[in-house]
Amino acid sequence: MLASSLLQYLKQLEAKGTTHVPIEDNARAVLRELYTRGSARRPPPSGNTSPSSPPTSATLQAAVGNSSAEKIADLAAQAQSWEPARSLGTLRDTLVFSVGNPDADLMLVGEAPGYQEELKREPFVGPAGQKLDQILKAMGLSRSHVYLSNVCKFRPATRNQTTNNRKPSPREMEVSLPFLKAEIEVVKPRVIVALGATAAQGLLESTASVGQLRESWHQFQGIPLRVTYHPSYLLRQEDGLQEKRKVWEDMLAVMEKLGFTITDKQRSYFQK
Ligand code: URA
Questions:
Q1: Is the pLDDT of residue 58 over 70?
Q2: Would you state the pLDDT for residue 39?
């Protein structure tokens, strides 16, 4: 009943020329639930789901929308009430999904939101994010050119938590991974960068260090993936010229892969 009145109301708005309706996260979650219940009654899409595996609240639905931005918004709405993450009981409530350009050639993936990110509901807004912005600037890019996401979509919880953060566990990353895969299908980046060991390990199901994984190309969902140090690692280095150079060499490799023109000045950054 609620669903049909809502549909009628939306159709009236559409008839008057409205193309977008602002909606709060809570309402989005309710709509998602209605949609999920509705699709559970629909016959499965051909070849996708068998009658013995009906969609459940833990089945990620194909992203719906006319544009990449709408599809990402749809995935974020699904993540809000994602049972596998919620039922762990080790993650906080606020969803921090992604930011940036959903049609970007370059996607960067971090580990999990921290205190600052949770407050703003946006990945990489704290000091590590500012460092990342500097790296992007040196590449001739800004946040609006790239798509930024995390392997874990909620801030990992700790006892008596204030501003302290912790890394996501392998299980916490695993339950978020269907979203990252779906995001990649929507954004279709030409290159992915894993920022830091946790993200790299979550994506590549590896226990190797950044030192072991960087300097070569890996693949994730068929897309070239480069591993580099997390920006917060750079912030922790006192002098750090060598580490900055390593990150910069990784980014030069990414720029080459993307066919960027690299200036002599850019090539020589962070060299003694
Ligand atoms: N570190 C991350 O890995 N991701 C964020 O969003 C913020 C800090």
A1: yes
A2: 43
Domain parsing of the chain, residue ranges = 68-267
**For the whole model, what pTM was predicted?**
0.80
Q: Which of 250, 253, 247, 245 lies closest to 269 in space, CA to CA?
A: 245
Q: Which of 111, 115, 152, 227 to mutate to test the pocket of ligand 1 (most atoms within 8 A of CB)?
A: 111
| Residue 26 pLDDT > 80 | no
Distance from Cα 186 to the centre of ligand 1, integer Å: 21
Mean pLDDT, range 45-67, rounded to an integer: 63
> Which amino acid is residue 256, in one-letter code?
E
Q: Any bridge partners for residue 98, and if so which?
A: 149
Atom of ligand 1 nearest to the CA of 199: 3
CATH topology for 68-267?
Uracil-DNA Glycosylase, subunit E (3.40.470)
Closest atom of ligand 1 relative to the 110 alpha carbon: 3
- How far apart CA 154 and CA 148 sit, in angstroms, is 15
**Ligand 1 contact via 123 beta carbon (within 6 Å):** yes
